[in-house]
């Protein structure tokens, strides 16, 4: 058995065990009452952050996809083993040379406004991602196609590698075999009849960004800013018709949302780890844990005068007592992370540089970087104190508490740190800044110093190319840390064309080796996310694909 099969089986076993534990917890509490599943009804779920966009092609974040996964469909979706299966695609074939992908689409699918879905919508979506005016982060998905670069540069009127054969057949042709191509198609398909006359550069301002029309199992109804988004079941859905009539997504502080669960105004809510003991004692609700293939980390703006030096980043990494953070804040819900690739994914390398907690090493590295302590005990270089602001998005209590501990740890070695709390959409404006006329632009040294966030693999580790490839700095991608390394660029490109799994895995491991040596991100921990669920809700089994990924299966009991 190859490594891919072995890793897949191990991951599947882990997922099944996690699901079984969650289901057992639900079953034990639900058994106290005789209930029957009801077709219809409403479920209200709380989230800590409000979406920024409801167009899946605009800088999609977890806050966004929690909603858009229910409203939009994609050609393919990942199963629990990260293998791609059809959604809008009925099936697909790949040519012997690995360059031509022919997709047969499901027939009879309609948009929420009644218009017919066809291959033209698919062609429109992926062509738009290569439009010269598009600047919202997903170009990497179409970059492998023949003619995509020429279309982006305005040298062609269409993308040669996208061909509509008929209403239910579309063909993609890549320049060369591209290992992650199919997984890159996991993105919501957009309605051509709604957006065809709108420049992709103006999508964020278009009314459909706040009142989307998709083909998904739920239809958009209303968005009350700062309060909630209301969805209703798509009774004409081509797949599994939702069992619910409505789904309400509310937004607010974790403690406020938890209080709403206690008052039974909210059915499902994230739970701060510190509050899990009180939730476990509830007789009308259960605790369900979501495992996500993600790592919480600190990222740095390498255009800063301090963070352009890897020794400074390494010094800060050695000053972090990760064990203390996990033990005091996360307990059983967290594990130390020494890799920015999640430990339960095949991209995780078993052999990387480890920045153990060693403040003496931190001081040595800072001195090697030319810093000396001043009379106040703060490191400085050329008269500039090693002082920075770390942006901390609100909503996740564990992340907020971690930031406080990080500040204390770094200040102990002579680094001055300020924390700035801000909501997630505001943080996005710093990491992905815009010009005065609303266009995405490059990050500068003045946009931010550092931040703390989580990042997870949605499907394929090729997603990291958009975060660390030199050509993917905003507005072309998510490389807002400004990282550029020729070796990493070459490795990231090489892994895309390597079809042999073992060889591709080694290339990914080589990428993680170099990123760890440069410590461009400081990985902190991996966290399992607890949710409290009212026992009237059936079928809530969140996994790494998202909290709402299977919302059409949810039902209520009365």
Give structural notes.
With 558 residues, the chain is of the alpha+beta class. Among the domains are: 73-206, Dipeptide-binding Protein, domain 1 (Alpha-Beta Complex), CATH 3.90.76.10; 294-528, Roll (Dipeptide-binding Protein, domain 3). The protein contains 15 helices and 24 strands. The chain has helices at residues 3-30, 62-71, 119-128, 148-152, 192-195, 254-262, 276-280, 310-318, 322-330, 359-368, 397-412, 424-431, 465-468, 486-497, 501-518; strands spanning 37-38, 42-47, 76-78, 84-86, 89-94, 100-105, 162-166, 169-173, 218-224, 228-233, 246-251, 268-270, 285-291, 294-300, 334-336, 372-373, 379-381, 384-385, 387-393, 416-422, 450-456, 521-534, 537-538, 555-557. The strands form six sheets. Strands 12, 13, 14, 15, 19, 20, 21 and 22 form an eight-stranded mixed sheet that branches. A four-stranded mixed sheet has the order 2-11-10-9. Strands 5-6-8-7 form a four-stranded antiparallel sheet, with helices on one face. Strand 17 and strand 18 form a beta hairpin. The N and C termini lie far apart (48 Å). Residues 1-34 have low confidence and may be disordered.
């Amino acid at each position: 058995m190859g490594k891919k099969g072995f890793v897949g089986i191990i991951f599947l076993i882990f997922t099944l065990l996690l699901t079984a534990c969650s289901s057992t917890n639900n079953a034990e509490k639900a058994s106290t009452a005789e209930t029957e599943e009801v077709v219809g009804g409403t479920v209200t779920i709380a989230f800590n952050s409000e979406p920024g966009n409801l167009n899946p092609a605009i800088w999609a974040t977890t806050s966004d996809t929690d909603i858009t996964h229910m409203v939009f469909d994609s050609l393919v979706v990942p199963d629990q083993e990260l293998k791609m299966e059809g959604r809008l695609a009925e099936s697909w074939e790949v040519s012997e040379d690995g360059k031509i992908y022919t997709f047969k689409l499901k027939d009879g699918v309609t948009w929420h406004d009644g218009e017919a879905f066809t291959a033209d919508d698919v062609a429109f979506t992926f062509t738009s991602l290569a439009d010269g005016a598009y600047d919202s982060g997903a170009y990497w998905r179409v970059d492998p196609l023949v003619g995509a670069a020429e279309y982006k540069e305005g040298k062609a009127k269409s993308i040669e590698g996208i061909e509509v054969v008929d209403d239910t057949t579309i063909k993609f042709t890549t320049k060369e075999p591209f290992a992650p191509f199919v997984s890159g198609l996991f993105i919501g398909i957009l309605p051509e009849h709604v957006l065809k006359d709108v420049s992709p550069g103006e999508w964020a301002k278009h009314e459909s960004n706040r009142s989307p029309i998709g083909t998904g199992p739920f239809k958009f109804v209303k968005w009350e800013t700062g309060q909630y988004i209301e969805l209703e079941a798509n009774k004409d859905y081509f797949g599994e018709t939702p069992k619910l009539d409505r789904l309400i997504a509310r937004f607010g502080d974790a403690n406020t949302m938890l209080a709403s669960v206690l008052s039974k105004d909210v059915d499902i809510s994230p739970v701060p780890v510190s509050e899990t003991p009180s939730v476990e004692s509830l007789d009308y609700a259960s605790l369900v844990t979501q495992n996500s293939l993600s790592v919480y980390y600190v990222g740095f703006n390498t255009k800063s005068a301090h963070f352009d030096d890897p020794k400074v980043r390494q010094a800060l990494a050695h000053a972090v007592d990760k064990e203390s953070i996990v033990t005091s804040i996360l307990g059983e819900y967290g594990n130390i992370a020494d890799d920015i690739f999640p430990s339960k994914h095949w991209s995780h390398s078993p052999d990387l540089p480890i920045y153990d907690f060693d403040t003496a090493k931190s001081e040595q590295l800072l001195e090697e970087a030319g810093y000396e302590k001043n009379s106040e005990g703060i490191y400085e270089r050329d008269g500039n104190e090693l002082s920075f602001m770390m942006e901390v998005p609100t909503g996740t209590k564990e992340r907020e508490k971690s930031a406080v501990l990080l500040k204390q740890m770094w200040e102990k070695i002579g680094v001055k740190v300020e924390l700035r709390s801000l909501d997630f959409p505001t943080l996005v404006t710093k990491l992905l800044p815009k010009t005065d006329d609303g266009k995405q632009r490059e990050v500068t040294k003045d946009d931010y110093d550092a931040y703390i966030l989580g990042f997870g693999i949605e499907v394929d580790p090729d997603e990291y190319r958009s975060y660390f490839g030199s050509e993917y700095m905003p507005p072309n991608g998510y490389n807002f840390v400004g990282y550029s390394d020729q070796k990493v660029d070459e490795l990231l490109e090489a892994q895309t064309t390597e079809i042999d799994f073992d060889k591709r895995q080694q290339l990914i491991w080589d990428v993680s080796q170099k990123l760890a040596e440069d410590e461009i991100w400081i990985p902190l921990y991996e966290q399992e996310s607890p949710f409290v669920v009212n026992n009237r809700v059936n079928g809530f089994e969140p996994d790494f694909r998202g909290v709402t990924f299977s919302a059409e299966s949810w039902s209520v009991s009365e």
